[in-house]
Amino acid sequence: MKNVMRKGDLTSTIHLDTIKNKKGLYGLGPKEALKGELLIIDGKSYVSTMGTQGNIEMKETFDVKAPFFVFTNNDNWDVYDVPNTIKNGTDLENYLIQLKGSYSLPFVFKLKGVFNQVDFHIQNLPDGTIVKSPNDAHTGQGKFQINKCEGEIVGFFSTSHQSIFTHHDSYIHMHYINDDRTEMGHIDHLLLDGFHEVKLYLPK
Questions:
Q1: Which residues partner with 64 through β-bridges?
Q2: I want to staple 173 with a disulfide (CB 3.0 to 4.6 A). Which of 2, 46, 166, 179 is the partner?
Q3: For residues 192 and 88, is the Cβ–Cβ distance under 8 A?
Q4: Parallel, antiparallel, or unpaired for β 37-41 and 44-50?
């Protein structure tokens, strides 16, 4: 992530179709040249990009590249009700920090249910943009706010990969996708307050 956001290296480092084991595969990252968002959820790969009218365009394909990407395989989950104390993304991160002692390595997690509010973006960097900072890298983003939405969130947690696959000020990196598979993007802000229909999935 640092190479992309601070050094302006937008070239692809992985072709998703080269990931051989797609059973229980999960992964996320931006599309090459910062022209969209990528999400692999349970072995299916989705690409979201911005249309010419400011609309979201979705495609299911592994034939896509990324400048950085995090992925793992998992098909064995423990399922929990989200505690009432978790109201937002910061609360979720703190909760996962408390749980991290159960895991020796970074881990993937999922949330499924109805979310009070999800703010997400889709990278849409204009051609020719010189990237020297995160602000530059965020130029042209499509920004969306969805309320009372049904869907899934895939996230990766790590306390040792800031600026690698999480931002420098966070231990989590999350992408949202709706149940209809017509909207997907990188989560900027998440509100769970008032809804208790959300399940948290953690690797066994």
A1: none
A2: 166
A3: yes
A4: antiparallel
Contact 79, 199 (CB under 8 A): yes
Q: DSSP letters of the chain?
A: -HHHHTT---S-SEEGGG----TTEEEEEEPGGG-SEEEEETTEEEEEEE-TTS-EEEEE-S--EESS-EEEE---EEEEEPPTT--BHHHHHHHHHHHGGG-SS-EEEEEEEEEEEEEEEE--PPTTPPPSSHHHHTTT-EEEEEEEEEEEEEEEE-SS-BTTTB-TT-SEEEEEEETTSS-EEEEEEEE-TT----EEEEE-
Q: What's the pLDDT tens digit per position in 190-199?
A: 998 765 579 9
User: What is the CATH T-level fold of the domain 2-203, as seen in this structure?
Assistant: 60s Ribosomal Protein L30; Chain: A; (3.30.1330)
pLDDT digits (tens, 9 = 90+) for 59-117: 999 999 999 999 999 999 999 988 888 999 999 999 998 888 888 889 999 999 999 99
pLDDT recorded at residue 32? 96
Q: Distance between CA atoms of 28 and 42, rounded to whole angstroms?
A: 12
For position 25, what pLDDT does the model report?
Answer: 98
- The angle subtended at Cα 124 by Cα 32 and Cα 120, nearest 5°, is 105
Domain spans of the chain, in order of start:
2-203
